Each structure stands twice: as C-alpha cells, then as structure tokens.
Amino acid sequence: MDDLARRLAVARGDEPADVVVRGGRVLSVFTREWLDVDIAVADGWIAGLGDYEGREVVDASGRYVVPGFIDAHMHLESTKLLPDEFARLVLPLGTTAVVLDPHELANVLGTDGVHWLLDACDTLPLDFYFMASSTIPASAFESPRRPLLSGDLESLLRRRRVLGLAEMMNFPGVINADPSELDKLRLAEGVHVDGHAPGVLGRSLNAYVASGIRSDHEALTIDEGRERLRAGMWLLIREASMARNLQALLPLVAEFGTNRIAFCTDDRDPEDIAENGHINGMVREAVAAGVAPEDAVVLATINPATWHRLWHLGAIAPGYQADLLLFDDLERFEPALTLKLGRPVEEIPEPDVPEWVKHSVRNRPVSASDFAIDWKGGKARVIGLVPDQVVTELREEEPGDAATIAVVERHLGTGRIGLGFVAGSGLQRGALASTVAHDAHNIIVIGRNAEDMSRAVTRLGELGGGIVVVDGGEVVAELPLPVAGLLADAPLAEVIRRSLACNDAARALGWSGATPFLTLSFLGLSVIPSLKITDRGLVDVDRFQIVPLRV
Amino acid sequence: MDDLARRLAVARGDEPADVVVRGGRVLSVFTREWLDVDIAVADGWIAGLGDYEGREVVDASGRYVVPGFIDAHMHLESTKLLPDEFARLVLPLGTTAVVLDPHELANVLGTDGVHWLLDACDTLPLDFYFMASSTIPASAFESPRRPLLSGDLESLLRRRRVLGLAEMMNFPGVINADPSELDKLRLAEGVHVDGHAPGVLGRSLNAYVASGIRSDHEALTIDEGRERLRAGMWLLIREASMARNLQALLPLVAEFGTNRIAFCTDDRDPEDIAENGHINGMVREAVAAGVAPEDAVVLATINPATWHRLWHLGAIAPGYQADLLLFDDLERFEPALTLKLGRPVEEIPEPDVPEWVKHSVRNRPVSASDFAIDWKGGKARVIGLVPDQVVTELREEEPGDAATIAVVERHLGTGRIGLGFVAGSGLQRGALASTVAHDAHNIIVIGRNAEDMSRAVTRLGELGGGIVVVDGGEVVAELPLPVAGLLADAPLAEVIRRSLACNDAARALGWSGATPFLTLSFLGLSVIPSLKITDRGLVDVDRFQIVPLRV
C-alpha cells in the first residue's frame, strides 16, 4: 500500500494511525472553533479528525492544540545561527516553518551560498522555505560580492522550496519602472513577490502594487497598514528586534478582521528570541493586547501559509502536515509540546558546512590613516541615530562630538572605504566593527580612535568575519562569525554569551543607544531613510544618491 | 514604453489613464469599505485608486462599483449555449469570469472537444477558465465515447487556462483509494482539485479531503456545510436550476463569516438565467436573506478567485484586471454597466464551430420493440422522482402506473440499451427524448408508448442531437442541439423559445414534475443517489452496482 492509500485507510479507520493526539481542544483555523476531536496522523500527515485509534497516543487532555507557527518573512542571518541551531531554538517555541529571504548570505556568496543553505536546510525538521533574494545589490551604492541578475533569480526559482521573489527593496526603481526591476517582476509571473515599501503611500503605492507586488512588512502606522490592505496587499506585521510594529498595527485586526494579515519577525537577534520568543511571542503579545486567541493563531498559521501558497501548512485538517502545538493556556503560548510531522523532535542533525562558505573576508589591509578624518570645521552630513529604529536622521551640523564611521569593502579587496560621522551613539572611546552590515556586508566600523578602528578591521580579517570590540589597541570582546562573516559555527548559548559580551564591552566604551551591533549593522543599508553609509560613501536615501560628507 | 511600464506611469499620474471610473463608491473586498475614489485603468488593468485623469471618463456618480462576478464552478453545456452566446447572456448580468468543467463535452468528444472549446473561448470578452474533467466515465456504468485517462488529464493541464482537476465525482473510488483515482490526484500535485462529495460525512469525508481535494459544491444542509468547512474544504454554495442550496447554506455565512465560501451555479438552464439572473441572482438572494451586501459580493468575487488561484481577478485594486460592475442599488444587483478590461463590451465575436464537433450522434437504428417491457407483474426497481432534486428514490414496487425509460448508446453504435421504470413524472402519453443525459450523454428517452419512444430516438439521430417531444408518432416540439448533441447553434432567444416549447409540449403530455428535460437529463447520472439508468442498465448508486429491473 503506498503512502496516500495508507493515509486514506487511516482516515477511514481501516488502519490504525501512527499517532493519535487525543483529548485536546483542537482549533479549526477555518471556523475558529475549538473542536473536541482526536487527530489521526499517518506518515506525518493529518488523516482525519474524529475518533481514532493509533499505534502511539499523545495525551492532549486539558490542552489546546493549534497548528505550528509560520514566520512569513525572516532573514536567518540576523539570528547568527546555522539553520540546525536555529531549529533547536525555535521549534520548542512553536515555529515549525519559516519563509527565509537569504539575502545577507546572497550578498556575500551569491547564488552559490543560497544553494548551499537550501541543501543545508533540507534534512532539518523545521520547514525552511525561501524567497529568491531580488535586490542584490540593495542599491547601486552598495558593493556585494556580485549582483544577482535575472538569470540568477531564474535559477533560484527552479528549486522546489523557493516560493517566489523576496522583498523588492528597490521601491523607487519599481515605482519608476526601472527596466531591470521590471525584468525581475516579469520573471516572477505566476510566482509571487514580497514587497518592501517603507513610507510609500498614494500614487507611488499604487504603482508599486500595480507592478504585481502584493505584500509589505514595512508599515509602521495604522494609516500605512490600512492603505496597504485597501491596495490589495498582504500586511505582514513585523516584530523585529530593531523594528517593533506589532502594537501599532494590531488595531487593524479589530477594524478589518484577520483577512490578509500575517505575522513575521524579519530580523531577530538570538538574544531577543531566547528572551521574548519567536512567532509565539507575537501571538502572546497580540492576545495580551486584546486580540482573540483564535484570531492571533490565524495570523501565525493559515494566513502566512495562504500568502505563501503553502497549501499543506497552517491548519489542523485532513491533508495538512501534522505540525501541531500543545498549549496549557492561551496566554503564555509556550508550547508544552511541539509535534513536527506528528512527533516530538528529538535529534536535529548538523548540516555540512564546507570550507568555501567560510573565509569570505577579503579586504585590502588597512591602517589607522584610513580612518582619520581631518575635519577643519564646517557643517557635515551626520548620521543621526534614532533609538530602536532602523531609520536614521540626516543631520547637517558641525560634527563636533560625533564618532567616526567607515565601511571597508571586503569581498574583492578593492580597498574602497567610505567615511562619515555618527551622532547619538554615546561611544566615548575604542572601536566596534562587524562583518554584518546590511546588505552588502562589507566591514562596518565605528570608533573614536583611528588606531582602534584599524585594529578592529584587521581582527575581523583574522577571524574570517564576526564582531569585535577594541579598546586601546586590544580586542576586548569578539564573536566569530566564520560562515560568510554572518553566521556563527557555534551553539546558541555560546553565540548569546559572546554576543552579550560584545554588547557589554560596547556599553563599557560608552555606547548608550539601542543594541549596538544591530544598530551598527543597519547603518550601511542604503534603502532605509535617511542617511546611510557604504564603501562608496554617504547615501542620502531620500534623494537616493551619494552625497559628500561636507555640506 | 512597454505595457507594465505604462501601467506604472499611469499609477504614478505621469500618463493619463485610458479610462477613469469617477465618482462611484468603490468596494474594497479586502477591508469591506466603500471608498470614494477614482479607478484608473491602463491596458485593461487597474493602475490605481485615488484622483486620476483619463482619456475617457466613465461617470459612476451615485453608483456602487464592485468587481466582476466569478462563477466558481459551472458546466457551460447546461446552458445549451455556445460560449459567445453565453457571454452575451451573462456579461450584462455581471458575470465576467467563469470556471468551467466541460465534462459533458468531454464525454461526447473527448479531449479533442475540450481543446476546441478552449480555443473557441479564447477570443471572447468573458474569461473562461477550465478545470480538467476528472471523471469520465462518471462511473464504470456509463458509456462515453471514450474514457479520459491520466494522460488525457495531463495534456489538458498543460493548457494555460486549465487551472486544475475538475470535480472528482467518483467519491467512493477516492475514499477507497482506487488506484486510478489516486493516479489522477498524484498528477494534480501542485495544481488544485475540485470535489463532489454528496452526503459524504465523518471518516469518509476525512478520507476524501486527505486525498487532497479541497472543495465541495454538493452540500445540502448546514451540518454538511459546517463539516466541510471544519475539514478545510472550500464550500462552494450552489444554486443550480435543479439543486438550489443557497438558502439552506447561507446561515453559515452568519456563523463563520465569508472565509472559504464562494458562489457557483453548477448547472443552469438558459431560461433560468434569463429569468433569475446568474451569480448576480445569488448575490441578490443572499442580500435579501440578510447577508451584508459587502459580504455577498465577496462570496461572488475575491473568494472564487482565491479558491481558483486567479490572482488577477476578484478585486478593485492596483494590479487587478479592470472587470467592474456599476450598480444603482445594493438590492437588485442588476448592473447599470459591466466594464470588461475597463470598457463596455460591444461586439462579441462568433467562434469557429467546425463540422467535426457536430454530427456526434451515432446510435444503431431502433424500433418500437427496443422499448417494450413485457412486465408480467411483481416488484420492480422503480426510479422515483424527487421534485426539484437531482437525487432519486429507489422504489421497490409494482411498476403499475410508471413510465418506461431507456438509455440508448449513441457514440459507437453498439446498440446497447438500458430499460427501466420511472414513477412520479405524470407523463400520460407520447415520449420525450434527449441527447443531453449526464454524464455520458447517450440518448435518454421516457415514454408511454414504444412507437413514440422509437420515433423520438430516431429523430434525434436526424437532428444530430437535441431534445424532442413526440406524440402519436409525430414530433410536436424540438430543440436541435447540433454541437455534440449538447449545445445549440442558435441565439439565446431561439434556444429559450424552443426549449420552452418542448417543456410546454411535455406538460401537455401530462408531465407534472419539475423542468422535464433537466429532470430527464439527470436520470442517467450514475453518481447521484439513489437509482439511475444508463445504457448498461439500472444503477443502484448507494450500493454502486448494476441491479436488475426485477427485485
């Protein structure tokens, strides 16, 4: 008897199920009822709801059973974890499937890196789906190892677990019908496309949506959210470590219902997940804010599955994958048990991490003179930090007390270095540097001392990537990220310990803003307003051009 | 400037729209709000909502603007109209897209006929989508020209406008994992599959759904509907000429909202459409029954589009096709104007109807003796008509007053004839015959007189198919259906006139039940309970086997 025939035999009750989940209150995401039914599982699929016998029984008495949570949009690289370690972290939190945009890795390693990651995820018990990273470089002002062209995207879309085009970040290019952006969208005819349209409204939003892009996770306000829903977009409510939009957008659920709204985390650092949870944390917060638990679960299950056309995920019904969460209450949303394919997850295998995905740091050697700005007075364009946001201010002022920031090209050894000033960090001495610097992930370094900045950059080359804090010429804390200069090759606890040590070291140097290295990592992202820096210089994102340091 | 670039330029307001629909109250099917916005159309697509200028302006002042209606499941052949004539009928009623299962045509002409119909529909201003007819023959008890095998379905699925597998009618076969049914479902992996599960509940329903089938339009009761929704099926609420389920199922909208519910007509005869409308009639009735107009429109627009993954249809938003209906009120739902691709439909071209799709009737010549049942008394299995339903009763009784019914094989000239009795028709004399006899569309004939039955069958051969009424050896009314013996090659008015004349003639012979020829046409459908007849004999559908006439 083949798999499907056996599944039907189990559904009919002619064969015992592999597993029966018995005695729970089972959520129908379709009717939003709690059904008192057994769940019969055959070969990892739900065969039936009702009264069933099985070879194994999972006792769910007194518990709530809901589908596994799905993250509608995230970048694995922000967790700094290899996919197996990420799975170890989030499966117990109830996340059973994620849709990744691996664009950090793709900036560093091109499609080769994405194919490696697809393969590395393939045998893991968490379902990793991918979107083909659509905007590399994020803009012409950034320098990844190589751009991803239409042909690259086409090759990625051929892979089974690649669902569509990832966030189209060059929204000015789309809106203005830049031929290279339209080429990508034509390629995507018949597949689907995630958006990224911060602050885009009115006719510009119409143009962005008319191009075929039907989601956005960049809405910050009710009005932006409402306009996106009216325009026919899916509103992916984001609760990232650096961009927390859940509370602002939840009133839309009260206003319009759950239709076309889903949860995503976008960029979460590992400490944040360990402390606040993952998608389950969003469900918990939503319920605490007054959303009905049934609705909150819908936003975390069938809705992301529907947006991504993952027809086998997100519900507890026949023909769906048996990814099930058992909860003791509908407040904490900490799973008493996560069942993947009907069974608790036991061992998570370690994927192959070949040498060629490491050793990605290839910058021309630097010295202190590369980071010295001989400012003679006068107004500069200064990057002004905004607490807890990835947006920055473009300040035109005497740099005065500002720290120095630099981006050092590290893929092709060109020696290109962009220099600027940052206000609002609180940094008093030393230097912080990182190979995690969106999106091209060149080396970003901020400091008070050109010698320390040089030492920090040099140390990253020695490590093959990572995060370092230097004070008085000495490395005082570091987190090696040998995989593409983005991911640690270490267990979660060590990553968190070293990451926290780096943060503590940064604070010891005076850093007073939000999470130092997360903040730092977004200062190079040239598609988020207002003033950013790349190896090519300062980028005025609102005017979308390189601007000189001096006003 | 190419099409997409121009559309974005219109969205931005940099180019005038082709058409602007101005001054209306525009429904967002996403937020269920009425928005006071212009609709800008470029090349037939909606470019933007807001303030726009255009080369043409459609004044929608004081009117409601909603997306064009979509029929989630129908058989064109029940209308007896060629697709152009059907478009002329329903476009003014607001139907702008339909999803056809052409299984009547496919029973008569195989995949050849479906390819012809696909081509014939291609240039019409109504959007015809198809599902690949999955169950031909409907059962082993029926005799189409040839069965459609997996290879046939695969070839149909290659065509752009074929969306998936049409209703899997052999529900016992699916539930019991019949290998040939599972082969079809495996073929459909990644495409989608309509269901047909009359009366199926409990574990059987679980098995049916576990197979991957995710819709049903056969629910008759609230309980059946509720169970289908809980099982994760889309509930396609059907209002067919012979099976009106709308009123019974509408309370589910109040109970659970519009989620996963859509409207369909399944089988509508042309008189019914002319009199009661099409999908617009269902919207009208739903609103009259207390459903909010916004919800009723959702059930007729974005919901059928979502079920069928027609991502460009069913909404008024950028990137959607500009199929728009203007209504003066939200009660009658009679469009003041239907805009297809942003413009009123003017001329509808006549498609090519080649000779080979006509002349499909090829039965062995018959005589009166073929229809004479020499009944010596005793109990027979008698088909008991149930008013306004396609189900019948299996009565075990003395045939007594029952009429004679026969099905004559008409595709391969085998001479096979099935004979039986029908109670409850009221027929007193003469004979009615038709080449429309679900699903194999052999000749079905009912009569009080073997001579008249023979004459009626012979006349259908002369006509190349159709409907005839014979009394006293004379044809007293007829409707020629030369295209496959199913469709008229005539305008709507003539089809209705002749059809009504046939009905009148039947009633003159004493017919007292529901629409005579529609009733007759379902007496051969061997997958609807309880007793049916084919050229192979009487079919006990509940036991799913051929049974003898004598008990």
Quick gist of this model?
The structure is a homodimer of 551-residue chains. With 551 residues, the first copy, chain A, is an alpha/beta fold.
E-strand count of chain A: 29
Uncertain segments of chain A: none
Q: Structural class per helix/strand content of chain A?
A: alpha/beta
Instruction: Tell the overall outline of chain A.
Output: globular
Number of helices of chain A: 17
Q: What is the first-to-last residue Cα distance of chain A?
A: 75 Å
Tell me what portion of residues of chain A adopts beta-strand conformation.
25-35%
| Residue-averaged pLDDT of chain A | 96
**Main sheet summary of chain A:** 8 strands, mixed
Radius of gyration of chain A: 24 Å
Biggest protein-protein contact in the assembly: A-B, 59 and 59 residues
Structural description of this entry:
The structure is a homodimer of 551-residue chains. The model of chain A has no long low-confidence stretch (mean pLDDT 96). Chain A is globular. The N and C termini of chain A lie far apart (75 Å). In chain A, helix 12 packs antiparallel against helix 13 (293-300). Chain A has 551 residues and is of the alpha/beta class. At the A-B interface, helix 1, strand 5, helix 6, helix 7 and helix 8 of A face helix 1, strand 5, helix 6, helix 7 and helix 8 of B.
Topology of this protein?
Two copies of one chain form a homodimer.
Chain A: H1 3-12, E1 17-22, E2 25-27, E3 34-36, E4 38-42, E5 45-50, E6 54-59, E7 64-67, E8 69-74, H2 83-90, E9 95-100, H3 103-122, E10 127-132, H4 150-157, E11 162-168, H5 171-175, H6 179-187, E12 192-195, H7 202-210, E13 215-216, H8 222-230, E14 234-238, H9 246-249, H10 251-256, E15 261-264, H11 270-276, H12 279-288, H13 293-300, H14 302-307, E16 324-327, E17 337-340, E18 343-344, E19 380-385, E20 392-397, E21 403-408, E22 417-423, E23 431-434, E24 443-447, H15 450-463, E25 466-471, E26 474-480, H16 492-508, H17 516-522, E27 531-534, E28 537-540, E29 545-547
Helix pairs in contact in A: 12-13
